[in-house]
Amino acid sequence: MNGRARVLVTRRVAPEALAMLRERFDVTHWDSSEPIPRDKFLSAIADTDGLLALLTERVDAELLALAPRLKVVANMAVGYDNVDVDAARARGVQVTNTPGVLTETSAEFAFLLILAVARRLKEAMRWVERGRWTTWDPLLLLGPDLDGAMLGLVGYGRIAAAVARRAHAIGMHLAYHSSHAHPDDEERLGMRRMAFDDLLRESDVVSLHVPLTAATRHLVAERELRLMKPTAYLVNTARGGVLDQQALYAALVGGSIAGAALDVTDPEPLPAEHALLQLDNCLVVPHIASASVATRTRMATLAAENIIAVLTGRPALTPVDARPPAP
Prior knowledge:
Strand content: 5-15%
Mean pLDDT: 96
CATH class of the largest domain: Alpha Beta
Order of helices and strands: EHEHEHEHEHHEHEHEHEHEHEEH
CATH topology of the largest domain: Rossmann fold
Strand order of the largest sheet: 8-7-6-9-10-11-12
Radius of gyration: 21 Å
Distance between the termini: 46 Å
Number of strands: 12
Low-confidence stretches: 323-327
């Protein structure tokens, strides 16, 4: 043994982050675009001091019990529903995440999904691909104008606020539901804070921005979808478990809502034969809201910086247990 701490990295990530870690520690790297198998994860954790994990890795009591040396779990994501933070804290393990660095990129993508689902982009692409485009048709694939439409934001953290700024810029009216008031944004953007049910009833687009917790699992299910306008659209860039997908399918087929766009699903990935993927009015993409070169690089390097800080005796840069997620 050379006395250097050992770090486990569970996926192929930006090389800049790996270089930072390898300069200081002995690094075991699962060099793949696919998640590390659970059995290999459990066997690799035994002599690990620091863990750089993704949201696909379940860091639970079983794994923590096998990791007596573990001091820090750096989750390369804003959300950390894959980590049992209480169990980690009980063992003196610091958990960190990567807030802030992906805000603008994720907001851009959420707004892209709002535009795409409202203007029936998936259906239009299929129309062309299936050879159905024969001429310009003044009544073909008509969608709503978003200028003057209401966007309802469920949850109001950094990303939701960045989406609100973009929506305001194109003339959308804004409403939000949150346990905390944001009077400055209300005044600047002309935004209203609303009760959840009222927001669902009045919004033309509903965008989900809450963390996945026991309280928010299936926050939007059959009852909530029935409250929405039949002309309304639902966008989810939060976590798949926030939305009851079986209820969503029924709502889309039955006309309770006009369409949906999902960056996140439950499970991930969805099987290719999944019923939602067969619908023209449901756009599903593979959890890529933060997928810009700069953002994914910064997420990885921030996770590495957190590991370096903790393993060298300094405070973590972004400790999650000091900052519980706001709905």
